[in-house]
Amino acid sequence: MKIAVLTKAIPSYESSIRVDSSGKWIDESVVNYVVNESDSYALEEALQIKESVEGDSEVVVVTLGAEANTSKVIKDGLAKGADRGIFIKNESTTTDPLSIAKLFADNLQSENFDLIFSGLQSDDMGSGQTGVLIGEMLGMSTATLAIETQVEGNSIKVKRELESGWFQWVTLPFPSSISIQSGINEPRYPSLKGIMGAKRKELNTIDSSSEHQSQNFVNLYIPKTEKVTEKIEGDADTIVAKIMDVLKNKLKVI
Amino acid sequence: MVLVVLENQRGSIHPFSLEAVAAGQKFAKELNSELSILCIGEKVDELKNQAKDFKSNKLITAQNSMIDMYSSDGYSKVLSDVVSAMGPKYVLIGHSYMVRDFVPRVSAKLNIPFVSDIISVDFNNGSPLFSKQVFNAKLATSIEVSSEQALLSFQSAAFSSDDIEKGGPDSEEAFDVQLANQDIRTQSEPEFQESSSGVDLTAAELIVSVGRGIESEDNLPTMQSLADAMGAEVASSRPVVDMGWLPPYRQVGSSGQVVSPKLYFSVGISGAIQHVVGMKGSKNILAINKDEDAPIFEIADYAVIGDVLEIIPKLTEEINNSK
User: Fold this and answer.
1) ipTM of the complex model
2) Is A107 part of a structural domain of the chain?
């Protein structure tokens, strides 16, 4: 079985996010890039399937983006146990889901993957479309928000998370592109042996350029505060006294 | 033409779809365009009956026994066929989990961009700009679409269902659905709810909700003590549940419960969109976070910038002493 895992480098939670001088993108020089959270779960799910099914299987970690931000994401995937990597190098800041999916689909078509796993969404753009778009472009069956998977011969049974605590089982024939919800498993850490071994694994770098974008960022800005917010700052004792005042006198909840 | 698509959520129009109807009426007015409303799939008559008062030019039904139960294959094929036949400029729909599941396929089939999770629209004299949150809600962006048509989904509360104009449709149409067995490759089973044991957070007056900012499972008892002192329920954001620190029924957000307590006391939660949609209706929001730029502060009434592990034990002690 051949499984691709799509993984993306995104700014870490702790990173300072500032609009750059163009007004259309962020200042990348102050950002620390890490693996998108739900993509780590997608990789773990693929590795567990590889380890549990009979016969030869291959897990290929795939990413797209600028080299400076993205190279360590592939290395991380290989160190955790992916067999090889595909790096679709793209130095533009493409944000159009259709253009991005076309780049993936064009470059992955000849691989004939049985399964493509992706995280449910990237925590930077948050469109949550890439895996489904690629699935449709490559004629695959699709499902989203998988919280459990069971491979059964040439199909995969997936427990989909719906809203408000509801679920649904769906059986999809291969080939299939599935987005994975975070929390589905416990992602492993790379072992020292894995880190050393990653250097010898195959990494195929493909240069790409984006075509016409069907949707574009006109600008980026700090969201306007909807509410009048009272700031509470100071040392811990000052803060505690102020919170007590709010709870006791303003909201009267204690 | 502007086309609004209604989603059937176990017998009722999905609340996000109602907001999409309000959006559709506004789009039609601003763009001087016709409005059609589409009822699709499962129990179409049930949907149509609930939609019959909404003012529109046309109420369309797309019914076929093969899409009685939702499938991504079936819904994406039918919606693509409707859009191809009717050529709407904009297709409007609520940003639900079902929409995330099938609308990108319509986008790929028809090569029409899908702008998802929109929070507001600037009609900009007929060339609309769509705002959405990016970079974990730390920033927002305005998006322009360069194609003739677009699929648009709206985050909850981008429009209000209170604004829906009544008056019913001018006409009705039954769309001729063409589906063959081979169009539906996936096999769906009925929806189910996991064991209903747990807590009804929606009934809680006070909620202490914890996020990854509490740093470790070992700090949960400290948070529980604060909740006990206040007489509050403990809730959490998704990462806390993913890490196994709290059970899923404690989770607030799009995949958990939607709450509106008198006070939502948020501890170490950054405020990702998926969490905020579950609690932004709270009467009062007090948020503690050490990151001054945390997006939770945008919707907070009280923004406490500080170290939760230092503040919470002291606060708990103060509350207990004041009793």
Assistant:
1) 0.92
2) yes
